[in-house]
Design brief:
Distance between the termini: 31 Å
Strand order of the largest sheet: 3-2-1-4-5-6-7-8
Shape: globular
Number of strands: 8
Strand content: 5-15%
Structural class: alpha/beta
Number of helices: 11
Largest sheet: 8 strands, mixed
Order of helices and strands: EHEHEHEHEHEEHEHHHHH
Helix content: 40-55%
Length: 283
């Protein structure tokens, strides 16, 4: 259970880590942070949404933590836990925010000390800007929070992760396996970013911004993309993502054929299905 006396340590104070810190501070929790960028730590301390911060893995800070949130890129997360797990107190619960779980959770859980526990989580929230200065807990209110338990987890640890999602203010908390998570994330998140990037780069007209309307701007909102993080996520989730990409290309091919053959009935039926399914998101 998370309460006001729980020492929460956030490792990686970027957009998501900073937004976590703001939400948890607002909830009255004791929040500390580690980030290698002194500006990030200085800003969070000045704004008052962390109690203490360090630009290095401070042994005392790590040793006092009861709940640790790893706001790191997947490969960095693995190596950080491997290098510093000896500093955690027995019984410490770890969780993460990584956008891919296969090759991350299973790897860490196979070398993690037996008196520690890592429960995977994925906050389905973000913005087109980065860094703690752009953080805000407002991104959580209408968003989904996914908990990804494995056989290594206790029911107590899983319930604490679910509680964390609710405490942060997410509108819905869901449980998925690693395979389920990576498959669906390949579709609802990674494929959509691929589509947005493709739309922004398939036409070389340098004056597109002078012609576009809201539809193009809405579809390409996420084309402002962090090249380091997303390229890593795409490759680490390669098999599920490529399967989703193949399915999308096949569906697009069907629509192309309908247009080519002037199949109005086929198009209208597809549009009705699309409209009905999209309406579920507006409830």
């Amino acid at each position: 259970m998370i309460h006001k006396n729980t020492h929460i340590l956030i490792v990686g104070l970027g957009l998501i880590g900073g937004s976590y810190a703001r939400a948890l501070h607002k909830a009255g929790c004791h929040v500390e942070a580690i980030d290698q960028n002194p500006d990030s730590i200085g800003y969070a301390l000045h704004e008052g949404f962390i109690k203490a911060g360090s630009t290095r893995p401070d042994p005392e800070m790590i040793g006092q933590a009861q709940l640790v949130i790893l706001g790191l890129y997947p490969k960095v997360e693995i190596e950080w836990v491997r290098q510093y797990q000896h500093l955690f107190a027995p019984g410490t619960l770890l969780t993460d925010v990584s956008g891919v779980k296969g090759g991350v959770l299973d790897v860490i859980q196979n070398f993690l000390r037996p008196d520690l526990e890592l429960v995977g989580c994925h906050p389905m929230a973000g913005r087109e800007v980065y860094g703690v200065r752009n953080s805000t807990d407002a991104i959580f209110g209408a968003a989904n929070f996914i908990v990804v338990p494995t056989d290594h987890n206790t029911e107590e640890g899983i319930q604490t992760a679910i509680e964390l999602g609710a405490l942060l203010g997410f509108s819905k908390v869901t449980r998925l396996t690693i395979a389920q998570h990576d498959e669906i994330i390949g579709f609802v998140s990674q494929l959509t970013h691929l589509i947005a990037v493709s739309l922004m780069t398939c036409n070389e007209d340098e004056n597109l911004q002078n012609y576009t309307g809201d539809s193009f701007r809405d579809l390409t909102r996420i084309a402002r993309i962090n090249e380091n993080m997303w390229s890593e996520l795409f490759v680490m989730n390669k098999a599920p993502l490529l399967a989703q990409l193949d399915a999308f290309q096949a569906q697009l091919g069907k629509l192309r054929q309908m247009i080519d053959q002037e199949d109005f009935d086929g198009m209208k039926e597809l549009f009705r299905r699309s409209t009905a399914r999209r309406a579920l998101f507006d409830r």
